[in-house]
Each structure stands twice: as structure tokens, then as C-alpha cells.
Amino acid sequence: MTPYHALDAFLAQIRTDIYPEPPGEPHITITQKIIAKLVTSGMLAPDHRVLDVGCGNGMAMEEFARHGIQAIGVTLGPECRSCQEKGLDVREMDFSFLDFDDQSFHLIWCRHTLEHSFSPMFTLSGFYKKLQPGGRLYVEVPAPDTSCHHEDNPNHYSVLGKSMWLSLFKKTRFALEWTGDFPFETHSGPDVYWSFLLKRVDIVPV
After folding, report:
1. Of the listed ranges 7-21, 41-55, 62-76, 118-132, the one predicted with least confidence
2. How confident is the model at residue 3 (pLDDT cuts 50, 70, 90)?
3. Does residue 205 surpass a pLDDT of 60?
């Protein structure tokens, strides 16, 4: 078996870990808040091309549409069909192997998706190629070792510490524009999500 056949077999194996996640709080409020911030700041406009990787049931795509922005989504599993049935432009595609032209997008929206990558540095490198020079990447991930123990989810392969995420962004030539925390309470106890707005740069950020 060649290394590529081994990778194909591994990808087929972990695809069985995929499961749909219905929208709920705090996801709805955070999504609305961040998209509004991008629009009001002028970082996002109706003529911009947006790619929602791991778009799930299309919640963020519908929010983009409310701002006059028609996003393209990619996902795997049954949510792809349900998004298409709602009239959303969603392709069944692995977000680590994006089949789009390079420098196609102004923004890649990657909310609660990167922790599903078994090789986030490879995935981030792919995102870099698909963004236009100066394009932006929004990443949001769950923190490890909270009361919710996101690292134990069946399809979470990269629930990393914040310093590791920042190092990976730098290694893949993204400059950090801003970051923020979203703490909240769950039935299990306190939890927190980390957010990062990154910009594609053509030199290695220092």
C-alpha cells in the first residue's frame, strides 16, 4: 500500500465520525455578532467572495445572506443535502482538500471546523492558497480542558492550546489582526471558545 492509499483509507475511516449538529446558543449569537462586526468595519462587503468551510446546516451562510453576501459552503455528510434543499450553494467537499482556484476568496469563515482537522497546519496552508492577497480568515475553536472536554468529542482531532494555534497561524503566513474569548456557562460548567481574525500576508509575520 502506497502512502497515498494509506491516507485515503484513513480519511474514509474518520469520515464515519461525522455527525450533524443542530444550531443553538451561544453559536447563533456569536455568529451574528462576528459577521456584523466584519460588515460594519468594512472588512466584508456584498461584492466579496466568502467561503464557509464546514458550513454545517448553513446557519452562517444564511446570516451572510441577510447582509447581502452570497457565500459558498463546503461540508460532508447529510447536512450537505439539507443545505442544498434550502437553496444554499453548498458543495460536498473536504475542507482540507478544497477544489477551488487559488486566490478565489476575500474571506474564509472557519468557525468550529479547524478542530476537526487531523492536520491543521496542512489545512491552514490550503486556506492561505485560496485567499486573495490581503484576504482574511476567521477561525473559532473550542478551548481544551474545559468542563465540556471538547477534546473527547469523536470527531475532534485538534483541540489545541491557544499558543499552539497562534504558532500554527504564524507558520502558515497569517498575521493576527485580533483575537477574543467567548466564555459561557453550560450544564457541565464553564466553557470558552477562542476567536481569531487572521490576514493573509506575503511575508512571514514576526
Report:
1. 7-21
2. confident
3. no
Residue 20 lies in a domain: no
DSSP the chain: --HHHHHHHHHHHHHTT-------TTHHHHHHHHHHHHHHTTS--TTS-EEEET-TTSHHHHHHHHTT---EEEE-SHHHHHHHHTT--EEE--TTS--S-TT-EEEEEEES-GGG-SSHHHHHHHHHHHEEEEEEEEEEEEPSSSTT-GGGSTT------HHHHHHHHHHTTEEEEEEEEEEEEETTEEEEEEEEEEEE-SS---
Q: Which domain holds residue 128?
A: 26-200
Q: What is the pLDDT of residue 206?
A: 52
Residues 2-29, buried b or exposed e (16+ Cβ, 10 A)?
eeeeeeeeeeeeeeeeeeeeeeeeebee
Q: What is the CATH number of the domain that holds 89?
A: 3.40.50.150
Cβ contact 52:64 at 8 Å: yes
Cβ contact 116:141 at 8 Å: no
The answer to whether residue 176 is domain-embedded is yes
Assigned domain for 154 exists? yes
Pick from 12-26, 55-69, 148-162: least confident: 12-26
Report if residue 139 sits inside a domain. Answer: yes
Contact yes or no for 43/100 (Cβ under 8 A): no
